[in-house]
Amino acid sequence: MDTHPLSHKRPSKLDRFWFGAPYYPEHWTAEERRNDAQWMQEAGFNLVRMAEFAWDRMEPTEGVFEFGFFDEVIAELGAQGIQTLLCTPTATPPRWLTRKHPDMLRVDANGKRMEHGSRQHACYTHPAFREHSRRITRAMAKHYRDNPNVVGWQTDNEFHCLFSETYTASAERMFQAFLAKHYRFDIQSLNQAWGTAFWSQSYLGFEDIPLPKPNHPWPPNPGHWLDYKRFLSHAITCFQREQINILRATNPKWWILHNGIFGDIDYRGAFGEDLDILGYDYYPMFEVDPRTRKDSGAFNLDRARALCGNFFIPEHQTSGGGQNPFYTPGPEPGETRLISYQSIAHGADSLMYFRWRSCRVGAEQYWNGIIGHDNVRRRHYREIQQTGQEMRKLEPELLGSHVHIDCAVASGDLDVSAGGEAMRLGMRPESHYAEQAHQWLHRHGYQVGCVHPQDDLSDLKLYIIPHWTVFDPQWTPALKTWVEAGGTLVVGARTATRDLNNRVISETPPGCLRELCGVKVVESGRAPAGGRSFGIEANGEELETVEDYYEKIEVDKGVEVLGTWTDRFLAGSPFMTLRTTGKGHVIYIAGHLSGSVLNLCLPSALDASHCKPLRSTDNEWVEIVERRKRDARLWFVLNHHAQQSFSVKLPAGVDLLAGTCIQEGEQDLEPFGVRVLRLASDR
Ligand code: GAL
């Protein structure tokens, strides 16, 4: 099978583990910065990221470039062995530029134009903005071409972080051109794809097509909406590519990343292919409940890895932080180091802590950094310093390795998320159910990740496709081959019921997966709540209420029924079925894969797939994740509890942080404790 170039198993090509922080020297006086380079060096830094919001410092007025300030800082850091990742500063176009071209300011769906005074205020499709983006990129690239301390670039900062939609006139023109190309200049083909006969929407030419606006009026045509989201991804990819082309042409040795991950960008498409490595900004403390944080963190990290393989973390939460209107809790002592190891375990090949020093000015005064507002080093610094020293020991083991998983949920497709969004019908997105299933498996100690159906499934024993209503029939043959070779596939209700134009399919559902699943959906609808809800029964257990949705299905010959609906007109109708084909199995679930349904269904899927957890299933606070490089196996054993120690059964191996050999058996793991174990080769 051809492996997708951005496989979840792709290790990074970085030649070292980069470790450092985003740094904003422009916020500080020379006196305040006096110790920075030395303190960074003592913390084990080899990289800082700079300049993503410093356009006005580098070009205070049009055409007047002043790089002297950054030159000096880069040189001072370089003298301490710390290199620089520069950024194109296009997330914050300066005032002289927005004054000159007020129509480059973004417009929201209500027609309101953004104002200068925050960030991400320009529209990426605006020709003048694009021209100035190329100009500043060219000027920076030329200036730093031969600077040995500049090793790489970040494009812009967090595209689509605040919102992705844009409704400027230039966006509309570019959207029309995008559609014309996509539909080969044949307007009838667009009318056909979108089904514009409905509500008299047919178009006579591409120049007639507006940008779809939520609530103006709502709902828009689902094909129109999906193509708009594809266009937003295309527009940002073009904008980024212009910068990347300039950087690569100037110095091909530079490596280039972008820090995500946000909506309406097809990271697994051209956007990700253009980069050397994808960045993922990781702020796990947005999940305020420590009980679930380790599971939601694992899901988010795995979701990032599903897009392009191992990733870079340009911003890793260091401390508590916020800006109006929120303030997240902060990691307790030992927790910043612990979550750093969680990130690495799940595929981070470099780490930078947001940010070097807490800032006293601007909208992010309380996004706390490594060093306090008073310029004093305290516990966060010391913890990061310890982690930095440890990274030097681990670096050779980490680079070139990939995260090993044997079960996964489907994730990472723009058409699926954007198409689903247009037809949410008051229900939750497929990503919610993917997260629920992922967290269930993670909580029970399984080696679970996120994988796109087009990716390499070869190591997987269990694969769950939650409720991907939009589904590409081209994914089916590889799934079939994988199942026949021994995989267990779980397919949730509503999957494969819509096509790539976001229209309901004409075949009986689940359409292109019908034969593989061995079921036929003959009726479906919203499950009523209250006194008339539907229950299910499976594995000798009953569940009184199944959330949201039901399907009435019929099964093909030879398909086993593992669970049934229990009420009224559904009573006795299959809820969970099992088809055996080749060496594998397909389980179909005729409802949503939510909380208690998972308790009933996943044990059957795990039985069929022979997946085994890495630890006893009842110790929810301990996480074990494996990275592999050829025959070498690294285990990250992490205790997420702030106060309690646990005894964990571990195999024989070398404890890489302690530098000692351990025998197979129970090992104590202190609160927020971390072990990195290279397993003995005879295992
Ligand atoms: C990121 C962003 C940073 C900073 C940080 C803390 O999303 O890239 O510039 O805003 O969050 O809010």
Q: Could you name the key traits of this structure?
A:
683 residues, alpha/beta, TIM Barrel, Rossmann fold, Immunoglobulin-like, 3 domains, nine-stranded mixed β-sheet, eight-stranded parallel β-sheet, 17 helices, 22% strand, globular, binds beta-D-galactopyranose
Any overview of this molecule?
The chain has 683 residues and is α/β, with parallel strands linked by helices. The chain has 3 domains: 19-160 and 227-402, Glycosidases (TIM Barrel); 405-609, Class I glutamine amidotransferase (GATase) domain (Rossmann fold), CATH 3.40.50.880; 622-679, Immunoglobulin-like (Sandwich), CATH 2.60.40. 30% of the residues lie in helices and 22% in strands. It is built from 17 helices and 30 strands. The strands form 6 sheets. Strands 14-13-15-16-23-22-21-18-19 form a 9-stranded mixed sheet. Strands 6-5-4-3-2-1-10-7 form an 8-stranded parallel sheet. α6 (169-182) crosses α8, α8 (222-250) runs antiparallel to α13 (414-422) and α14 (430-443) crosses α17. The longest helix is centred in the middle third of the chain and has 29 residues, at 222-250. It binds beta-D-galactopyranose. Beta-D-galactopyranose is lined by residues 157-158, 161, 281, 315, 354, 364, 367.
In short:
This protein is of the alpha/beta class.
* Total domain count: 3
First and last CA, distance = 29 Å
Average pLDDT number: 96
Relevant CATH superfamily of the largest domain: Glycosidases
Task: Report the radius of gyration as a whole number of Å.
Answer: 26 Å
Shape: globular
Instruction: Indicate the low-confidence ranges by residue numbers.
Output: none
**Percent strand:** 15-25%
Amount of helix: 25-40%
CATH class of the largest domain: Alpha Beta
